[in-house]
Request: fold
Amino acid sequence: APEPGADVLTDVMARLAVAVDGMRVSGTDGLRAEVERLVMQGDRDSIARARSLVASAEAVRLSGLDPSLAAAVADVARSVRDTPFREGPRSDAVRAAAGDSGAPGDAVVVREFQRDPTLDVSAADVAASELLPARVLRLHGVGDPPALHWPTAEGRGAVTADVWLGYRRDDGTAFWLAGQAGDVALVDASVHGWAYTTVRAALVDASRCGRVLAHLSAE
Reply:
């Protein structure tokens, strides 16, 4: 942060000038203009955004990586932004995850997915099965049959089922409904990054599978 009495615009622009000095990559002039515009707006959110842009430029500078890598990432991001969805199960799944009210029911409501009994996990299977519900229940289940708990605005939710019923959506994603009358389901929500991986499940609303109630580790 600037020293007391220092001009915010001068401080931020000076940091940015050091960060982009010598960078042979397009976009630095636009970055300077955007940071200056944000600082001139003067509100807290704009200043925070300007500082985050400067910090990003500094991070690229300090990393020792070729700044052109950032340009390539930006090109990919623009391509993703500008490419329209192709109609089909995958785009329906994205719309369902985003809570789009126009997403078709057979991508949103777990009971409308294709039933797959080979995925079923009963209470008796929990000890030995490697399917997602069994792994989650071994780690987080309480009681017999094991119940899952999660925080809610009212306190705590709970669900137990003699059998977690397997369903498969048209995009290939497997879901497990908490019993025939269940109103929640489990789905793999693991994060597979180039630097790290987090294996986890999402407990979702079975009538709106894009609504996540809780994340539960699965390893």
Observations:
- The first strand starts at residue 114 and ends at 115.
- The two ends are 41 Å apart (CA to CA).
